[in-house]
Amino acid sequence: MDLPFTVATLTRRGLLTPGNPVRIAAQLNALRTWGWSLAGELRQAAARDPGRVAVIDEDGVELTYHDLLDRAERMARSMRAGLGVQAGDRIGVLCRNHHGLIETIVAATLLGVDAVLVNTGLSAAQLGTVAEEQQLRLLVHDDEFAERVLGLPAELPRLDERAREELVAGALPGDLHPPERDGRIIVLTSGTTGTPKGARRRTPSGFGPLVSIIGRIPLHTRDRVMIAAPIFHTWGFAALQVCFALRATIVLHRRFDPAATLAALTANRCDALFAVPVMVQRLMEVPPPDPRPPLKVVAVSGSALPGGLAPKFMDAYGDVLYNLYGSTEVSWASIADPQDLRQAPTTAGRPPHGTRLAMLDDDGQPVPTGRVGRIFVGNEMLFEGYTSGASRETRDGLLDTGDLGRLNADGLLFVDGRADDMIVSGGENVFPSEVEDLLAQLPQVREVAVIGVPDPEYGQRLAAFLALHPDETLDPDAVREYVRHYLARFSVPRDVIFVKYLPRNATGKVLTRELRRYFG
Length: 520
Fold this sequence. Notes:
Number of strands: 24
Oligomer: single chain
Shape: globular
Mean pLDDT: 93
CATH architecture of the domain at 3-215 and 218-227: 3-Layer(aba) Sandwich
Structural class: alpha/beta
Strand content: 15-25%
Radius of gyration: 23 Å
Helix content: 25-40%
């Protein structure tokens, strides 16, 4: 990350604005002492803006940066003194978006403990596997998951919401010092095909990762930001990191509801919203409030934008949509701004500053512009590997995303889907995402998923699952004829199945394993 670009970006986003010299000195000392972990970021924010509201929960709880840090420190001291948690341990965090989740993660990093962010959509069996594979020392969970954790080993201590509050309230005095080892954040892969893997996230070493994001997405110091994306997800956690760095006010709801989200955005005068694409799609299904939220940024990531959604959303809410393409393993690869999305609504955009992007063939050689290749990414936040010890293929410092894509003549990236989602039907390579984007443009269609299924004659064939808007109808033959009009014959789905809704995990990704059950 070159210094001129970093300084210019930090200045433009308000991070180098002059202020109280004593607080600035304390802020810099916090970063020098505690580094760029989540604990260090919270400490620097509390040093510079102690009285600024850090978190607003949906139940009206407001905590300043000073209060949030104090509660996290209290919890850390109680976990250490009362539960024997120490550096190198791993704790599981099974919580929705609220201040208790943040306090728990920060408390872990204060102690040098690894925090495993558990997907709230995991089944009891999957949760048991995660607890065993990650060797959890402690599980902190919301009350709503009490029944789901009953089957865990009796020797695994569990803290519900009341117990967590008791830890905070009953903390003994004491000092916390930077741990000998950094606590890692372990994000579980989305797990649409089975039990997810744990991926170890790097701790940032400076301003570079922040500058990469805010260089393309115009977030500013002291913005008011609603994080609707689950914080246990890579995108939601990244939003939390960015908000701490910017000393933003964070608005949280435990569950996403489109009408409640729009009301909260308006009531809290939010400048920005972090969401996953399906949430943006749901926002378009309810009447917009009057007045509309004062949004300057709606940043989405986690899955592909459905075809046609970007221009429709921007027509309704202004040119405020930013689409980040990345993964748990590579963090980010590219960002599409509103101009990119107006030009090409399905693009994943361009790599931000300090990021390398390459389309390679199976031999590791670059493919020509416009040709589909394997997407490889290089930046300073590539993951450190899976907790199982496995990793991903690398080429010249670039990590394989597992996705296929292409770059056009203007340098815009288009993601065609997972490499293992591409099917070969009658000798032809077929990408389900191309058909999904086309079908999503039908006005009757609320959401759509296209998958490959076995076929005795062609090897594989496409099956389309469509959920329609209320009171709408479509004929399967009409759907096939529509696809045949625009795409090659081998892209026409043989099976057209109408469903009430698509099965999704907690981050909005379609659970293809559930759809394949239609075919035994």
